[in-house]
UniProtKB/TrEMBL annotation:
Transmembrane segments: none annotated. This is Probable imidazolonepropionase. Keywords: Histidine metabolism, Hydrolase, Iron, Metal-binding, Zinc. Gene3D superfamilies: Metal-dependent hydrolases, Urease, subunit C, domain 1. InterPro entries: Amidohydro-rel (IPR006680), HutI (IPR005920), Metal-dep_hydrolase_composite (IPR011059), Metal_Hydrolase (IPR032466). The gene is AMDHD1. Its cofactor is Fe(3+). Coiled coil: none annotated. It comes from the Eukaryota. Its EC number is 3.5.2.7. Pfam families: Amidohydro_1. GO terms for molecular function: imidazolonepropionase activity; metal ion binding. One of its GO terms (biological process) is L-histidine catabolic process to glutamate and formamide.
């Protein structure tokens, strides 16, 4: 039917499908090379979903009688899936640039945390900020992420800790989900730190007060939350408190997606595999047994190379995880402690510091990151029937998106979400 399509991208040098057979994730041998079409075109329908991908001459004949709202000539350029950022903390007030100077002088993350800095510093500023102030700064951060090619992002609460502020943050995330073009997966992270009480008391408060309220608001359609997160760490939430909170979150329909084995070995990976977690983040201190357990349970590892880089931690053992068949995803960990909007830079760091290949890194920032959020059936690859989220880069080879460290601002010409151009140079 004429006029039935929104967007035609034609004559691309490369269209990087990532997947071509409906895979929900890529692991082991499937990561050696990604599905790529040469000299291809792509059609997105008015409903925002991909209708056709194929050789340019075939698409031209197939749609010869059609009209499009927009046609983009991609000659000499590459089309890739929109990037997926699987771990961020983007709603907060109060910068922590002074702490960066402290870290450079030798202070550790936990030393700053125990001195009232870190999360506690941000919590105080976030509690004081108005909902509108938080939304405006959040909106600006999402815009920066979009310009760097991100079309789906996981967004956590966690700088409130009390119920009132956690709900304020979740309302901000919900407003962005409804009003902005970028895709959002919302995570309740009220167990991000222990707010001047014991871990057991904090867990009781979350289980008895926070989670029932989230369930009520979700049932009423006021706030949609996808995931539950806990910072399982020495001096924060121990394994027993983590288990209790995650299980109760799962019982009200939330996906388990939590911080684990970051600064100390906590057996978080083993716990996540046991509970059926969708994903576990950080994993700098994961055990060999935890890696095997995650691979067996198909629990995604969301690795955060920016965090290890900025905190001078040892790098997560990405190669060991990949070799054991773990589904490896990437996230920016954007927060006041790791101020990075750019998934292309995250992929570059993953390749250099964690020894991932470029195909492995791109899969980790697309289909596997979407899997970590439970959205790989609709996001993370360019396949017919999937959402039309994609980027166009001004290069004849897709690898330049990773190779050019910090060069994405010049490379990315278009960012498209649901078939709509949301950023254009």
């Amino acid at each position: 039917m004429a006029g039935g399509h929104s967007l035609l991208l034609e004559n691309a040098q490369q269209v990087v499908l990532v997947c071509s057979r409906g895979e929900r994730f890529l692991a082991r041998d499937a990561l050696r090379s990604l599905a790529v079409l040469e000299g291809a075109s792509l059609v997105v329908g008015k409903d925002g979903f991909i209708k056709a991908i194929g050789p340019a001459d075939v698409i031209r004949r197939q749609f010869s009688g059609e009209t499009f709202e927009e046609i983009i000539d991609c000659s000499g350029k590459c089309i890739l899936p929109g990037l997926v950022d699987a771990h961020t903390h983007p709603v907060w007030a109060g910068e922590r640039v002074h702490e960066f100077a402290m870290k450079l002088a030798g202070a550790t993350y936990m030393e700053i945390h125990q001195a009232g800095g870190g999360i506690h510093f941000t919590v105080e500023r976030t509690r004081q900020a108005s909902e509108e102030e938080l939304f405006r700064s959040f909106q600006q951060r999402l815009q920066c992420m979009m310009k760097a090619g991100t079309t789906l992002v996981e967004c956590k609460s966690g700088y409130g800790l009390d119920l009132e502020t956690e709900l304020k943050m979740l309302r901000v995330i919900e407003r962005a989900r409804r009003e902005l073009d970028i895709g959002i997966s919302a995570t309740y992270c009220g167990a991000h730190s222990v707010p001047k009480k014991t871990a057991t008391e904090a867990a009781d408060d979350i289980i008895n007060n926070h989670l029932p309220k989230l369930k009520e608001l979700g049932r009423n359609g006021e706030i949609h939350v996808d995931n539950i997160d806990v910072f399982c760490e020495k001096g924060v939430f121990d394994l027993d408190s983590t288990r209790r909170i995650l299980q109760h979150g799962k019982d009200i329909g939330l996906q388990i997606n939590f911080h684990g084995d970051e600064l100390h070995p906590m057996k978080s990976a083993e716990l996540g595999a046991e509970l059926g977690a969708q994903a576990i983040s950080h994993l700098e201190e994961v055990s060999d047994e935890g890696i095997v357990a995650m691979a067996t349970a198909r629990c995604s590892a969301v690795l955060l190379p920016t965090t290890a880089y900025m905190l001078r931690l040892k790098q997560p053992r990405a190669r060991k995880m990949l070799d054991e068949g773990v589904i490896v995803a990437l996230g920016s960990d954007f927060n006041p402690n790791a101020y990075c909007f750019s998934m292309p830079m995250v992929m570059h760091l993953a390749c250099v510091n964690m020894r991932m290949s470029m195909p492995e890194a791109l899969a980790a920032a697309t289909i596997n990151a979407a899997y970590a959020l439970g959205k790989s059936h609709t996001h993370g690859s360019l396949e017919v029937g999937k959402q039309g989220d994609l980027i166009i880069i001004n290069s004849s080879r897709w690898e330049h998106l990773i190779y050019q460290f910090g060069g994405h601002h010049e490379l990315i010409e278009y960012v498209i979400a649901k078939g709509k151009v949301i950023y254009k140079t």
